[in-house]
Amino acid sequence: MSQAELLWHRGVVALLLVVLLLPLAATLVYALSTTWGATILPQGFQLKWFADLWRDPRFLAALGHSLLICLGALLLSVLLVLPVIFVIAYYFPWLDGVMNILILLPFAVPPVVSSVGLLQLYSDGPLTLTGTPWILVCCYFTLMLPFIYRAVNNNLQAINLRDLMDAAHLLGASTAQAALLVILPNLRKGCMIAMLLSFSFLIGEFVFANLLVGNRYETLQVYLYNIRNGSGHFTSALVISYFVVVLLLTLLANALGREKE
């Protein structure tokens, strides 16, 4: 690649970064501004809106609720889906095509339609889950299936599952020991990618959270919806804080993944 082509590619990348970061930068400036109306630039800057946000117990509770639900769904999916993926990949590889169809079924039905059906099923009767975080954990578990299955299954195909299992068996390991001590450590990257994708998607989910739980277990997106008619500066501070929290958790997960390598 010539020097001119390299400079052109770098310029295109820089332009794309500016285009992507410009709305976020404008939101940050508005969150820090004292007033910003008829003038091109704000008339002053302050941290009042961020201070008000992080002192708001309702916001802190909503943030905690969102993190607990997302982490609970992640833990449930890893514990339940990983063994299923291993069994299919090792014993029944012909089921992979069937699973590719099944994991997309949650996205084939609109969330509003799914929510109405879930409300009718779990609003009363022997299993009343509407208005509790448990129904969100179960819903988010189904939404995570495509991310978890595809990322981990691709990772399994990349590590030559059968060769590793045969080598472990030759060295005297049982199938369970080989799966836990040989295969599982090699799936760390796939699991990390799946969990990061799932978390970034779930923490921004609104329809299920609003219809199935609402204010009874207010999540971050429901809180953002409830304060939409308030101060725009306060809402901007919330959007920036939401972005920073997701960014920090992503960086932390990547750092932990590198340390384990």
Care to describe what's here?
With 261 residues, the chain is mainly α. It has 13 helices and no strands. α10 (188-202) runs antiparallel to α13. The longest helix has 34 residues, at 57-90.
In a nutshell, what does this entry contain?
Helix content is 77%, strand content 0%. With 261 residues, the protein is mainly alpha-helical. α3 crosses α7 (133-158) and α7 packs antiparallel against α11 (207-213).
Explain the layout of strands and helices.
Blueprint: H1 3-32, H2 48-54, H3 57-90, H4 96-102, H5 105-108, H6 111-122, H7 133-158, H8 161-170, H9 175-186, H10 188-202, H11 207-213, H12 220-226, H13 232-260
Main beta-sheet strand count, sense and barrel state: none
Instruction: List low-pLDDT spans.
Output: none
Approximately what portion of the residues adopt beta-strand conformation? under 5%
Number of strands: 0
Whole-angstrom Rg: 23 Å
* Average pLDDT number: 83
Helix content: over 70%
Q: H/E order of the elements?
A: HHHHHHHHHHHHH
Structural class: mainly alpha
Total helical elements: 13
Shape: globular
Terminal Cα span: 33 Å
